Amino acid sequence: MPDPTIEAWTRENARYTDARAEQAWAAEEITWGIWNVPESELNALPELGGKEVVELGCGTAYFGAWLKKAGAARVVGVDPTPAQLETARRCEERFGLGLEFVDAFGEEVPLPDASFDLVVSEYGASIWADPYKWIPEAARLLRPCGELVFLRNSTLVILCSPDEDVAAVETLQRPQFGMHRFSWPDQGVEYHLPHGKWIRLLRANGFEVLDLIEIQTPAGADTHEHYGYVTAEWGRKWPAEEIWRARLRPRSS
Ligand SMILES: C[S@@+](CC[C@H](N)C(=O)[O-])C[C@H]1O[C@@H](n2cnc3c(N)ncnc32)[C@H](O)[C@@H]1O
Question: Distance from the CA of 252 to the center of ligand 1, in angstroms?
Fold first, then answer.
């Protein structure tokens, strides 16, 4: 049976991400989220020099390209949508950064245990994979004391979203208790948890939580032309996006 999320990402590749990939790869600065807030302001990433990095849900791999340009020794992008990987491979051919790609879901990654220093997910597995499956995979892939950094829609924006592709409103639209799997007609299946569940899940898989960065829409920014699930005005008052940073505890502790 066709996977609705892969079908959705194949459509999104054709209508949006493929055409923007090369420009995104060429960007010099690491930025976060739909309003491109610079990493130099948020400090969400550990030192990248010499690190081996895997991105779960790499898409067209512009984020991995930025990490490689910022000093990572190795970047492996994992994604289950062939069209997205095709774009990523074309960009790699053009830019020659040495990124590697693996066609797989974030829930089951065919890479060895303890083989990376950093797992990242920028709107990849972080929202499209079941956290109860991909967080254990992230822990398995990391060396002791390795870090996990992921960007997702905030729990609050999901609670205030009336429907797919409708901008978040200023009142709660759905219960927080029980939230986990969201099946949207056009966008496939997303996963969103409340903060308490994220913390318990991370701790149960050997992580200590280092930070939760709630991103504010920068002054003067406009509502994104493509990602209309939240307005700039909403995002200046409440966090629409959030970055989690966690570190794997040493195995003996
Ligand atoms: C917004 S894109 C990621 C963008 C990426 N950070 C980049 O630099 O291009 C989301 C990606 O998540 C992928 N995805 C969907 N389901 C997934 C899953 N179960 N595990 C990992 N990735 C998944 C999609 O194929 C899509 O390419």
Answer: 33
Place of tokens 């050997």: 206
What single string gives the DSSP state of each residue in 10-68?
HHHIIIIIHHHHHHHHH-SS-EETTTTEEHHHH--SPP-TT-EEEEES-TT-HHHHHHH
The pLDDT assigned to 252 comes to 58
Token duo for residue 61: 């791999």
Mean pLDDT of the chain: 96
pLDDT of residue 253: 47
Q: How far apart are CA 129 and CA 124, in angstroms?
A: 8
Mean pLDDT of 123-134: 98
At 218, the amino acid letter reads P
Number of H helices, E strands in the chain: 10, 11
In this structure, are residues 79 and 85 in contact, taking their beta carbons and an 8 Å threshold? yes
The predicted model scores a pTM of 0.97
What pLDDT is recorded for position 243?
Answer: 98
Name the residue with the closest Cα to ligand 1, atom 13: 57
